[in-house]
# Entry
Amino acid sequence: MKTFLKLVVLMPALCFAQEDEMMDDGVVAPDAVEYVEDVFSSTRVINGHSTEMLEKNVMEFRVEHRFGDIAGTNGGVQQMFGLDNSSDIRLAFEYGITDNINVGLGRSKGNGTPYRSLIDGFAKYRFLRQKTGGMPISMALLGTASFTYMKASSDISLVSAFPNWQHRFAYSAQLNISKKFGKWFSLNLSPTLVHRNYVASDDQNTLFALGGATRFAITKSVGIVVEYYHVFDDPNLRPTNTNSLGVAVEFETFGHNFTINFTNSTGFGETQFIPHTYSDWLQGQFRLGFTIGRKFSF
# Structure
């Protein structure tokens, strides 16, 4: 009987102690910040950036590859639907200085329209992050630069003649705005300004483009992505240029992100695929590509 009375007296204390322990072991406090995770699965959508970031002290090694045209005059079965040709390849290292500041450096072969031997770099700062029951969107600022060290052409009428070394540079500035709706759908908008120091007489140094992308999550590790960039240029000056359109399937595994994409763009980076896309999907001028990202923690 005495034992029973002791249990009755101690029961409330035991219950409160258990509740406190549950709070310490992972129950989110009412005033805790809960960020929305995986708005997109990678720091990139297909060609362009997303608002996703590498965490602090995480480095990612990226391999990006583009094959030749699947169809059209340069594709078909004789070219194994583009697999016999390589339009471009890029290797890059990117690093999270903080959870909201990332930098990166890469090198790409270039597709010759008009540049080869390209080095690119970027810095990205996320200043807003979507929260559950709070901030409804994520926003990130991106600045990129590219430099070509290809041998200058002796034909002064070509852009690749490079009269001055500054003519080898191009730059872009971008604002990424994203939102995740529920568990399965995400949207990203990317107003972008591109400036090239040296262009042909029938081209524009500065271009404005608006990018849009969506992600549909099929499972927690598989998603379908669509990305489009519309360039607001002068069609009289740039009649052969087209807008970049891509579709991709992405897979997330432990430490890896793998993306298989189809796009009419041949180059990588905002200073390349925005001003230098010339292929037309309707003529079969799109190509298979893939991206592999491997993360390392320090």
Notes: The chain is about 10% helix and 45% strand. Residues 1-29 have pLDDT under 50 and may be disordered. Helices lie at 2-24, 270-273. The two ends are 60 Å apart (CA to CA).
